[in-house]
Amino acid sequence: MVIENLIKGIETKKIIGPVQNDIIDIQIDSRGVKKQSLFAALRGTQVDGHQYINQAIKQGAVAILCEDLPEQKNKDITYIQVPHSEAALGILASTFYDNPSSKLKLVGVTGTNGKTTVATILYKTFKKLGYKAGLLSTVCNYIDDEALETTHTTPDAVTINKLLHDMVLRGCDYAFMEVSSHAIDQKRISGLKFAGGIFTNLTRDHLDYHKTIANYIKAKKEFFDNLPKNAFSLVNLDDKNGMVMVQNTKSAIHTYSLRSLCDFKARVIESHFNGMILEINNTDVVVQFTGKFNVYNLLAVYGTACLLGQKADEVLIAISTLKSVSGRFETLQAPKGYTVIVDYAHTPDALTNVLTTIHDILDGKGKVITVVGAGGNRDKGKRPLMAKESIKNSDTVIITSDNPRFEDPQEIIKDMLDGLNTEEKQNVLTIENRRDAIKTACMLAKTNDVILIAGKGHETYQNIQGVKHHFDDKEEVRNIFQTQQI
Fold first, then answer.
1. Distance between first and last Cα of the chain
2. Burial grade of 140 (CB within 10 A; 0-12, 13-18, 19 or more)
3. Is 381 annotated for ligand binding?
4. I need a labelling partner for 364 at 20 to 30 A (CA). Which of 93, 153, 287, 307 fits?
5. 419 annotated as a binding-site residue
């Protein structure tokens, strides 16, 4: 695409150099730059892309998007100075890939918990309904039936638009994506046209990045502030921040709830470890999901599908055939008669939701053993809270290593223990090695007991000192089951 056409939609401060040159791709990493690339210099949280402008030019970049112009300029290079590189990049990427989000119905899901489940179940529901659809999620990206590995909850703007463009080329009618608070704050969704937005809930998370809850709320709210008039917002009315999200939106507001008068309502009739019987908008449906938190997730899916013009009865039939998302309240039955649940819960609120669900189903007929850790180089303030929530709702807690990243696992464990008093610590074991922690939980469990292995869910690795080592909670559990065969 010719530079002059590429930059028509963005706010610029200064343009220096030729604007008739052709661009064959856009790069945000100088290492990926090739001949005729546009290099976007972004100010990241760790690295400032402006440092790599010269390197990008050496590798063949013919255009530079930046906030600060370099002192020395090359007369053959086009320098595009903008107020905010990230915001401009989103629009550029959308233009470069022929505005793919306007050629399908794109729905974004934001909130602390439930984003992956809601986005994934929406994708699966629309596939069941006979549509071609795409998914951008924490667990996996899909272009119709093709699975693609994912590294971030919400990718960078160039990757998002490339994936959406590929979805359009494959004939997808719908796309569903998780929208993280980081992505909103960093303008990674700039330039996208959303048909709708979903708010699941908001509890403490990512304060290592946002610093305050107020900033975290503001980031989430910005997504709804920017939705167009012809889009819809679907918010959880039972979350105190639900209506806060849509205070300034131009979109049509819709609500879902288990407790209040709303557009989409549900109640639990029966609940078991392998599923529930629900009443959704006065119709009974059997689902293969468990827990009140999943009722909210399924309501969000149901409401969204209806708002996208699907028939309510057909949506419920599709939902009834689907199973839980990988690593989200995933149940494994031990030969010794106990149950293991692997869940991604990595916030205090998510832990409480999962443990409450376990107790509701157990009804005092067994004990609960929780294996839990906390990620390194992330919000330290939630560590003691996670330990507190775990011990409050478990008979035994084993505090272990999660993804320590560049931190000492023992220091993370200590931070968690700081949230407990002397009496609470009597029912806590600390086992740094996650494999040994899981083995110990399985040794302690008796018939009818439940083990919750929290924090990693679908992940198949442990991040230690920047290196990803293969580790899969479910794989570990199945290996233990083989040694316990009766």
1. 66
2. middle
3. no
4. 287
5. no
- Averaged pLDDT score across all residues of the chain: 94
Could you tell me which residues come within 8 angstroms of residue 94 by beta carbon, excluding any fewer than 6 positions away? 9, 100, 101, 157, 161, 191, 192
Condensed to tens digits (0 to 9), the pLDDT of residues 301-349 reads: 999 999 999 999 999 999 999 998 888 899 999 999 999 999 999 989 8
| 378 annotated ligand binder | yes
Task: Return the CATH fold of 100-320.
Answer: UDP-N-acetylmuramoyl-L-alanine:D-glutamate ligase (3.40.1190)
Task: Give residue for tokens 């890939």.
Answer: 97
State which fold the 3-96 domain adopts.
Answer: 3.40.1390
Task: Check whether 117 is labelled as a binding-site residue.
Answer: yes
Residues 6+ apart with CB under 8 A from 310: 129
Is the Cβ–Cβ distance between 100 and 112 less than 8 Å?
Answer: no
Give 380-429 pLDDT, tens digit per residue: 999 999 999 999 999 999 999 999 999 999 999 999 999 999 999 999 99
Q: Is 150 annotated as a binding residue?
A: no
CA distance 148 to 135: 10
Give the global pTM: 0.86
Ligand-binding annotation for 403, yes or no, is yes
Report d(CA 157, CA 38) in Å as an integer.
14
* Three-state DSSP state, 286: strand
Q: Answer for the pair 235, 255: CB distance below 8 angstroms, yes or no.
A: yes
304 carries a ligand binding annotation: no
pLDDT value of position 208: 57
Q: Does 188 carry a binding-site annotation?
A: yes
Domain boundaries, the chain: 3-96, 100-320, 330-483
> What are the Cα distances from residue 288, in Å, to 242, 258, 320, 361, 387?
27, 19, 7, 14, 29
Q: What is the DSSP letter of 52?
A: G
- The fold of 330-483 is Protein-Tyrosine Phosphatase; Chain A (3.90.190)
- Rounded CA separation 118/297 (Å): 5
383 is in an annotated binding site: no
Q: Span 284-306, mean pLDDT?
A: 96
